[in-house]
Specification:
Chain lengths: ~190, ~500
């Protein structure tokens, strides 16, 4: 079995032959993670499409992998989880759009959202890191991996109210940060 | 701020940022499930379509960029290179690169490189192309790359178009084998390799290279220069063996050319359009068929191992030395054929002949560590060295075995033929057993495992629980590949 280091370095060199090695080594795992999230939709094609998208994401972003922070396996698993959730959201959205008659139109535009630039989004996530490692992990699990509060509580072996409190703290922190940003921007004008 | 607002916030992050964040998330171990070969193939095909799609998109983009840059470059004169041997720049570059990587033949790089000293700048990135090597096998670019910002995403020249004497070369990819980067990631020293197709190239050629992506930054960097094979010509040996390497249901893979240069040995094997069509038809049938019981897995196995991968041969010199493979890359070409470039480390001297011994990998899933696949030896009885002879001229020797402070240490070596084609992972292991000597656990934590490049050294340490019983498991070295010496092919070199 080819080592992770070899797969990473060959993908960095744009050697697409190593996608097959990646699939041989982690295909079972990627499929399992994607299927756990998408399996309920009874759409085998969607799972396969999602797995191939994960490979494509890895292929295009291999340089983002940081071996000092995570194992390759963990990184792949996390990316798969993220991608599968993204897929599920889109698939569900698509099926909802088909039932237009039942749609309730709601105005969801939001001043906070409107002023957040892409760069700012990155900064905000960096700021959450500053609250504390556990808060950051909770934030990522909840909002990137779409994990339920109960699952997060189980993974940290704490009561769900602990997670609720921490999420409340994170949301407040972000609200304050964004308000400060708005005030700063207004003063700067 | 509501959950919905935060979800909107993270949803708009770009892919790269998400991938970076994924390093920070620690998730519990997931138990994998079995993915069938057919599903794997389907997924791989979907992926391949995606990268092809992306390539087409990029090509469109390049065409626009190229036409603009061509207008700007009409005044550019082609530089006649001077020999670089006396120019310290290339030596320095190679020395810097060599500190981090071992070049197959750095003297060859210094001796045969030619100075071009060209510069291209865009998007705050300057590439200074210092030197080139041009021969029958590849074009090597030696360059220094400076950026006004940190280059986060990889080293290399991506999205390349190349023209030789105004003819576009299809399937061009930069293989940055050797590169060095400064700590702040603003400067690279690199030697890139672009494999050249098996076409007749003039001794002196006008080369034009357009690069449209560096470290995930789109831009336009272009070089035009004249390259000559003159100086290197006498050091290059090219053979046209025209040997059939694989044949299946009318499809053929032919070894068209073998090139020996001071820097590398390259095999050019081609699957022509007709054969590629046959292969595509076979695989397409399976991609559309969901009923696995109706599928002849032999088809897929043969196509994957004999056509769509490195040459399925162990390459030996007449003195029995196994060539060290550097890499193997396949490229679709504009004429519908598929060419595979297998690159090996150079030899000190030209061999009289090459012997190609066919092999087939044994299905790895069959290689498991249990009572029936190997021998179990009581560790207490192992006071002296162990020698196990397996197959034709293959031997495993364990010189020392120590059992101290909860650690079992093994030192030894593998001897004999085809070192890279030995079962390595399940040939030697320390396993936990019950009172009757049956295996209970084969995943004993290892604190050290040295896998040397030649696959010969055994140096392993296992952390054990002193209250449990363990045995030494010795599997079969040969359970890795079947090697068929009787069907070896010979290429006369001298």
């Amino acid at each position: 079995m080819v080592s992770d280091e070899k797969i990473v370095s060959e993908l960095e060199k744009r050697n697409d032959n190593y996608i097959k090695n990646l699939l041989d080594k982690y295909g079972n795992l990627i499929y399992k993670v994607a299927n756990d999230i998408l399996g309920g939709l009874n759409d085998e094609d969607a799972v396969e499409e999602c797995v191939s998208d994960v490979l494509f994401l890895v292929w295009n972003n291999i340089e983002s992998f940081d071996s000092s922070k995570a194992s390759f396996k963990n990184w792949i698993c996390t990316i798969t989880k993220y991608k599968a959730i993204d897929y599920r959201r889109k698939l569900i959205k698509r099926s909802e759009v088909q039932n237009l008659a039942n749609l309730t139109v709601a105005c969801e535009s939001n001043v906070e959202e409107a002023i957040i630039t892409k760069e700012k989004r990155k900064e905000i996530i960096e700021m959450v890191k500053g609250i504390g490692e556990q808060e950051y992990q909770i934030f990522l699990k909840r909002y990137i991996l779409d994990e339920s509060i109960v699952d997060i509580a189980n993974s940290f072996k704490v009561d769900r109210c602990v997670i609720d409190k921490k999420l409340f703290k994170i949301r407040n922190f972000l609200k304050k940060s964004l308000l400060n940003e708005k005030v700063g921007a207004s003063n700067g004008r | 701020m509501e959950d919905r607002d935060i979800i909107n916030l993270v949803n708009d992050l770009d892919e790269k940022e998400i991938c970076r964040i994924c390093n920070d998330i620690h998730i519990e171990d997931v138990e994998a499930e079995k993915l069938t070969d057919i599903k794997k193939r389907k997924i791989l095909n979907k992926f391949n379509k995606k990268i092809n799609k992306k390539k087409i998109n990029r090509s469109k983009k390049i065409l626009v960029a190229a036409s603009i840059s061509f207008a700007l470059l009409t005044g550019v004169t082609i530089v006649n290179p001077t020999w670089a041997k006396s120019i310290p720049g290339i030596r320095d570059l190679i020395e810097v690169v060599e500190k981090q990587n071992k070049l197959p033949n750095s003297n060859g790089y210094i001796k045969y490189s030619k100075d071009v000293n060209l510069k291209a700048s865009d998007r705050g990135i300057d590439i200074e192309l210092k030197s080139i090597i041009y021969d029958d096998a590849s074009l090597k670019l030696m360059y220094e790359l400076k950026s006004d910002k940190e280059l986060k995403y990889g080293i290399g020249l991506y999205s390349i178009k190349m023209f030789i004497d105004d003819k576009e070369i299809s399937g061009v990819t930069d293989i940055t084998k050797d590169a060095s980067v400064t700590d702040d990631r603003t400067k690279f020293y690199a030697i890139s390799r672009i494999d050249l197709p098996n076409i007749e190239l003039n001794d002196t050629s006008k080369i034009r290279i357009i690069i449209n992506n560096i470290s995930n930054i789109d831009g336009n960097w272009e070089f035009k220069f004249e390259a000559t094979k003159d100086e290197l010509k006498k050091e290059v040996t090219s053979l046209k063996p025209n040997l059939t390497l694989a044949e299946y249901k009318g499809a053929k893979r032919v070894l068209e050319k073998v090139t020996f240069t001071p820097m590398e040995i390259k095999f050019f094997s081609n699957t022509d359009k007709n054969s590629t069509d046959i292969i595509n038809k076979i695989t397409q049938k399976y991609d559309e068929n969901r009923d696995e019981s109706k599928i002849n897995k032999e088809d897929l196995n043969v196509i994957d191992t004999r056509f769509n991968s490195a040459i399925p041969y162990i390459v030996l010199t007449d003195s029995g030395k196994e060539l060290d493979q550097i890499d193997s890359l396949g490229r679709d070409r504009n004429d519908g054929s598929y060419m595979q470039f297998d690159t090996f480390k150079p030899l000190n001297e030209l061999p009289n002949k090459l012997v190609l011994v066919p092999y087939d990998y044994i299905n790895r899933e069959d290689i498991v560590c249990n009572e029936t696949t190997g021998k179990l030896i009581d560790l207490d009885k192992l006071k002296t060295k162990v020698e196990v002879s397996q197959g034709k001229n293959r031997e495993l020797v364990i010189n020392t075995i120590k059992n101290e402070d909860g650690t079992i240490s093994l030192e030894g070596e593998f001897k004999g033929n085809y070192p890279k084609f030995r079962n390595r992972n399940t040939v030697i292991d320390v396993v936990e057993v019950d009172n009757d000597g049956r295996i209970l656990n084969t995943t004993i934590p290892q604190s050290q495992r040295i896998n040397t490049e030649d696959n010969c050294v055994i140096n392993e340490k296992y952390k054990i629980d002193i209250n449990k019983k363990y045995k030494l498991y010795i599997g079969d070295i040969n359970k890795y590949a079947t090697i068929n010496e009787d069907e070896a092919l010979t290429i006369q070199v001298k």
